[in-house]
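Demo today. Your pick:
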Amino acid sequence: MKIGKYREGPASCVLEVNRVVRPDLRDKLREVLCVQCPPEFRRTGYATALLWRIVREADASATTLMLKAAPYGDDAPMDCDSLALWYARFGFRPLTGSPGVMVRMPGWKAEFPCEPSPVAAAAGALVHGDTQAESKPH
C-alpha cells in the first residue's frame, strides 16, 4: 500500500511506515496520521469516504492499519472517545496495553457497519471531475 498523502475532496490524511515495529513487519503495516477536514466541510461525509477508501485499499493489499485515536489540531471537533467510536465504524479496534492506539487487520469488519453515504460518494465524484467517488492518492 502506498505511503503519502491521501485526499477525498477537502478531507486528507497521511499514511506512513511505522518505524517502531520490527523491520520484517513494516511492508504490510501502515500508520494513519493527521486525518483532517476543514471546519466548513465537517459532517459532510468526506472524511468517512476517505477512510472507507483507505480501508478497502488496505484489505485489497492485505495491509494492517494502525492509528492513534487522538484529536488533531486546535479546533478538533471530537475528543478521544468520540474518535475511537468513529474509527470503530471502519473496523479499528483498541490495541491492548496501548491507550488510544487502534489497529485494523485486513478484512476486519466494523462492529456496527456504516457505508459512505450516496451524497458523500457523489460529492467525491464532483470534486475529482470523474464518475467514480473514489479518488487517487496525491
